[in-house]
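WARN retry 2 of 3 for item q-0093 after timeout on previous attempt; input resubmitted unchanged.
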Amino acid sequence: MNDVISQYRIEKAPYYHTVSDEVELYEAAYGVRMPMMLKGPTGCGKTRFVEYMAWKLGKPLITVACNEDMTASDLVGRFLLDANGTRWQDGPLAIAARLGAICYLDEVVEARQDTTVVIHPLTDNRRVLPLEKKGELVHAHPDFQIVVSYNPGYQSLMKDLKQSTKQRFGALDFNYPEHAIEAEIVSHETGVPNEVSGKLVSIAERARNLKGHGLDEGISTRMLVYAGSLIAKGVDPRKACRVTLIRPITDDPDMRDALDAAVTTFF
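OK item q-0093 returned
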């Protein structure tokens, strides 16, 4: 078991810049093993925050990238056939529950609602996981916690969590950091000077103002790190911005021209 769980431990401290009181609130929530929901736009630091908290608390982290094809068996486990016959293999949720890890379901609304209901017994006072196919009831380790994340901007009637699921969680709202903090993050992650990272953030802020007015989503902090990484490697800033900030988020010629103009303003 120790060999299994060791691969999920985060040995090196992930860089995370606190924005408000999210660290203290999460620590308090973990203290009572409250399931947590992280809500915010793509690329704003939700996953990095979970990694940082797992490291800070000294707990292993098992991450599941949710998708619409994911089944309940993908989470809890299934019987497999090998040369010796059939054997049971725990899924990531069962492993986390047994061994006392933090289980992080990334973009949980991408999973089907009939899949996400399997977490219900783990997110109330029962803290159990029924393995129906195996006929076993797993009682969650005292250190176990479940965390989910999603982007509220993508909510729809067909793709959202049920109220019966939402009300089992505490929630933290995330957004892109304020200008100075975001510039510091980009500079730290890429090595570019603060002057350059500040310009990148200014470009992103202009793009984010266009969300809902031609853009489905603004430029994320993650994308700014990509741009800064290319600039740090000697790529011309305008070219780096086109490759990492503009071309990925829109194919509309007029929108591309508007964003190109924003890049030209700063570089």
